[in-house]
Amino acid sequence: MKKYLSKIYNYLPHFCHNLFVTGYNIVNYKIRMSGNYSKWRKHYKNNEGLPIEELKKIQESKFIDLLRYTFNNSPFYAQFYKDVDVLSISEISEIQKLPIIHKEILRANIDQIITLPKNRAKASKTGGTTGKSLTVYKFENDIQERIAILDNFRAKEGYELGKRTAWFSGKSLLTKRDIKKNRFWKTDYWYNVRYYSTFHMKDTFLKYYIENLTTYSPEFLVGFPSTIYEIAKYGLAHNIDFPSNTVKAIFPTAETVTKETRAALELFFKTKVYDQYASSEGAPFIFECKLGNLHMDIQTGVFEVLDENDTPAKEGRLILTSFTSYGTPLIRYDIGDSLLLSDKICTCGNNNPLVEEILGRVSDYIYSSETGKINLGNVSNTLKDTKGIIKFQVIQDSLERIEIKIVLDSAKYSNHIEKIFLDNWRDRVGTKMDIDITQVDDIAVEKSGKYRIVQNNIKHLIENNS
């Protein structure tokens, strides 16, 4: 059915594509913003500025509620905690009595982990920048609470759904006709969102992005910072003066915002970047305040930073417990990122603890001479609609070829799945690049212990070619 609809979409004119996008969003936002959404918006708005002692009480109460619900409703966790007296735990300080759950355990046991029937759940498919395919299942209430939390953060800078927004994410919405016409966007007429392709970051195309952004005049930019950075960098290099007082704020998603990226975005678009950290699985939130400090929102979860001996540390790997993950509980979840905590006190009015730096999400990319830079978010999304690919790594040693190493679950993988995986890659790199897929038993981690989904060994060539 999905393939059939895709064929129909390709034959439709641009105006109908926009209607299709609009209709899709109306259906999805109805789910996201109905139910308890308004209640959660009011709840988090009212809790702004609470003293840290009150925030910690809320955090502890939510932790105990989640833990007991999970123990009673998840067959996997009931077995996982068999050596722990879960019902006796009454404080967050006792959280280390619980074992840590890793992404591969979550992926392999998802049917026993979830606490609701799949036909009552909203599936969320994630590629993940570590290269592991993962689908989590969520209650509508969890989705509504998360959207409310995010909207409350963005509302501080004036954002509300319906205000003119330019969105840069991993949606593949263009046809060959669009590319021939140098048209790299589709528009949701109802909510005033224009979705710009993140698959065509090439110098010969970027001027069309800027021309359209100038005409569209969005109040807000949302999406992959590495993509918006390419646009800003091009504009600055060509002395393009983006109109002042147009963009009120930029809200990055999915990737780390480097100092270089932030400087270029704020200079070209003449506005401020407000960063945030979460994940498609449902991780708790970290938000940047008006003073530029990163706050862990402890109403949304527990953040542990551990060293190699699983001892609390100022800098180390991040272990998360999310209060918005009742469908697929995330309790002491090793997300694969690292964090550096801060001892500073912020005077912005937000009393949540501070983070000095998020160390784990380092942006990387593959380069295609045909389509330009393919950022980490779009690389990870090549796993969408596949199964049986436990993890993968893409290596680029030349402009003409990439090698993709894959670790397989052979019982679930098939020629059909490989075709979907290859088609996803073709959507990103075009038709000219050679793609070699190699099955391996495992993929080694870096000396740091981190696993890299992308190894780009020709950045010097790319800078000369782009």
Q: What does this protein structure show overall?
A:
The protein is α/β, with parallel strands linked by helices and about 475 residues long. The protein has three domains: about 10-30 and about 160-275, 3-Layer(aba) Sandwich (Rossmann fold), CATH 3.40.50; about 45-150 and about 275-360, ANL, N-terminal domain (Rossmann fold); about 365-465, ANL, C-terminal domain (GMP Synthetase, Chain A, domain 3, 2-Layer Sandwich), CATH 3.30.300. Helix content is about 35%, strand content about 25%. It contains 15 helices and 21 strands. The strands form five sheets. Strands 1, 9, 10, 11, 12, 13, 14 and 15 form an eight-stranded mixed β-sheet that branches. It is globular and about 65 Å long. InterPro entries: ANL_N_sf, CapK_Type1_Caps_Biosynth. This is Phenylacetate-CoA ligase.
Can you give me a brief rundown of this structure?
The protein has 466 residues and is α/β, with parallel strands linked by helices. Helices cover 35% and strands 23% of the residues. The chain is built from 15 helices and 21 strands.
Please report which band the strand proportion falls in: under 5%, 5-15%, 15-25%, 25-35%, 35-45% or over 45%. Answer: 15-25%
Total of helices: 15
Level-2 CATH architecture of the largest domain: 3-Layer(aba) Sandwich
Percent helix: 25-40%
Q: Report the end-to-end length measured between terminal Cα atoms.
A: 39 Å
Radius of gyration: 22 Å
Protein name: Phenylacetate-CoA ligase
Organism: Patiriisocius marinistellae
